[in-house]
Amino acid sequence: MQISVVIASKDRPELLAALLTVLRPQIEQLGGQGEIVVVDDGSTPAYDAAAFPGVTFLRTTGIGPARARNYGVQRSTGAIILFTDDDVAVQEGWVAAAQSFLNANPTFAGVTGETTSPPFSAIYEHSVEDHDGGSFLTCNVAYRRTAFVAVGGFDRLFPHAAHEDRDVAWRIQKQVGPVGFEPAMRVTHPGRPFSAKQWRRRGVIAIDDWLVLARHPERKASRRPLRWAPLTGAAHRWRSIGRETGAFRSPRKFRRWAWVAGGQLAVNAWTVWFKWRLLQDRDFRPVPGLRFPGWRIAYVGPSPHPEAGGAPGVAGLLLDQLLQRGHSIDVFVVASKEDDDPYGLGVREGLSYIVERSNFAFEKWYSRNPITKMMSSQLFAARGRQRLAKRLRALHRATPYDFVYQFSAMESVGVPRDKHLPVIMHPSVHAQGERTWFDREYRAGVSTQPALKHFIVSRWLQLRSKRQARDARR
């Protein structure tokens, strides 16, 4: 197989059908050397695969576009992987143009094309355009399978459809080879009129801006403006929430909104300062160590609710890193749906899920309320947390864990921090009942930056290994 087209889609069957109507004939022209792989990422209701003949259909449970595309690549067979979105209009010859460019330029790791938008239909509209190939949009890009796999695919730390495309392209350019531009690869991306939802999403994307540019500082002349990106993102979100709830039309609602939003912005401002200090540390790496196999670990994670942001992706990355180093991990998680694999890791040696169900009626109310959807869905999973805590203590008494890692205090199952259960609770680290260096160093660390959590775990493992080696020498 030479060509695989991978499409991640959710809740847009009509747009997907229109895309496949144009795309299927281009694949058929390859004479059996092409395939289309569609990943239905938790659509409700699920797509009917029988309505799309000649297409390989896969289904995931709302794991996000980055992980869904990675899964599609994993199940595909082509030597060249093309990515596009379900809402674009692919022009004639799109597949052939990508194939011709990569066949004629064997030193190139990938190719992107020209992306246009139709004339504006609103005064202020969000549009996606790329006329010279510098954006590497996943609606119009192709990579050699070897190059894509070599860098590990899309990074799951990006839970939203933003910047994961630039991140993987920049990593491919640094580690494998150049990504070219072919103007004959043309797609048209529809514009979207701006709304409160778009403003809130822009605030989320601003945080992803910060993460991707912090990872690739050579792409930014100055890193100083990046420090304020998460703060401006939070301001956009809270302004849109104030409009949605009518807070600007009622003094009573405004006072309540101002207290909550002001407190959250103050926390975000402190977080920005704290993250910025970490980025100046030369030793700061997402997962620098974890070279100590054989630990027995209990991971206490958050509920992978659709509104919970990137928690499943972050957890999946951390668990993958731990499993690759031979650790045995029991995952304790409260899930809102009938899902025995909440983080989508599949059957892995050394990994077991211990799942409790939360009250789905509360979850539905939570997801509709514009205030509570900014908070953790674990607020409505108290019974599940209590049951998990009992099972965790019982398992620890039978075969003690080397340590228990809690995603955060709000999303925890209430594991007691005592001498019987060594617990890492972000941002503080507790081991055998004694306060460690991390408590002093990260006492004010309110950040939810995933890399910080991984950094804390890896450094803690390093310190613990050194301490045990020192005790053994005695």
Verbal overview:
The protein is of the alpha/beta class. The chain is 40% helix and 18% strand. Strands 3-2-1-4-8-6-9-5 form an eight-stranded mixed β-sheet, sandwiched between helices. Helix 9 links the parallel strand 11 and strand 12. The termini are far apart.
- Classification by helices and strands: alpha/beta
CATH H level, superfamily name of the largest domain: Spore Coat Polysaccharide Biosynthesis Protein SpsA, Chain A
Domain count: 3
Q: Please work out how many helical segments DSSP would assign.
A: 13
Mean pLDDT: 68
User: What is the N-to-C order of secondary-structure elements (H for helix, E for strand)?
Assistant: EHEEHEEHEEEHHEEHHHEHEEHHEEEEHH
Shape annotation: globular
Query: Radius of gyration in whole Å, from Cα?
Result: 23 Å
Key attributes of the depicted protein:
474 residues, alpha/beta, Spore Coat Polysaccharide Biosynthesis Protein SpsA, Chain A, Rossmann fold, 8-stranded mixed β-sheet, 7-stranded mixed β-sheet, 13 helices, 17 strands, globular
Short recap of the structure:
With 474 residues, the protein is an alpha/beta fold.
